[in-house]
Design brief:
The protein has 5 helices and no strands. It is mainly alpha-helical.
Length: about 140
């Protein structure tokens, strides 16, 4: 499941639930003896721990993907605010169109671009665990 990260939290929970059901079913089909309840409890404990670690890895991977998306999308605005930040190597590496170094002349221009960027984030941004929080944190 780690190779599929990051993913939406609900998808993560569903995937883990499915894996847990398979593991518990396999255990119940093979277990025998007086100590099987104790081992079942231990298995449940390990499955909870594994979900916690999986969730932490997913949060980290989600944040990385969201921040990369923000950085790519906000780059044009950033360059118009401070043309000296333009990085042609970054533009080529990320496949971005060459940016003109035309600075904003009014706040209204900047605000219009920022509003458009916010709509773009909400519509096209990755829908992952904590993505809305990450976008809001960036915008404030």
């Amino acid at each position: 499941m780690l190779e599929k990260l990051p993913m939406d939290y609900e998808e993560l929970k569903q995937s883990h639930k499915m894996v847990k059901e398979i593991a518990l079913e396999a255990f119940k089909n093979k277990s025998m003896g007086e100590e099987s309840d104790q081992f079942l409890q231990e298995l449940n404990k390990k499955l909870k721990q594994s979900f916690y670690h999986l969730e932490e890895n997913n949060k980290s991977a989600s944040k990385k993907v969201c921040l990369e998306f923000i950085q790519r999308g906000y780059y044009t605005i950033e360059v118009r605010l401070r043309p000296e930040l333009r990085d042609t190597e970054y533009e080529q590496e990320k496949g971005l169109p060459a940016q003109e170094a035309k600075q904003y002349t009014t706040y209204k221009e900047f605000k219009a671009d920022l509003d458009m960027f916010c709509k773009y984030l909400n519509k096209c941004g990755p829908k992952l665990q904590r993505s809305k929080e990450i976008y809001l944190e960036f915008l404030h």
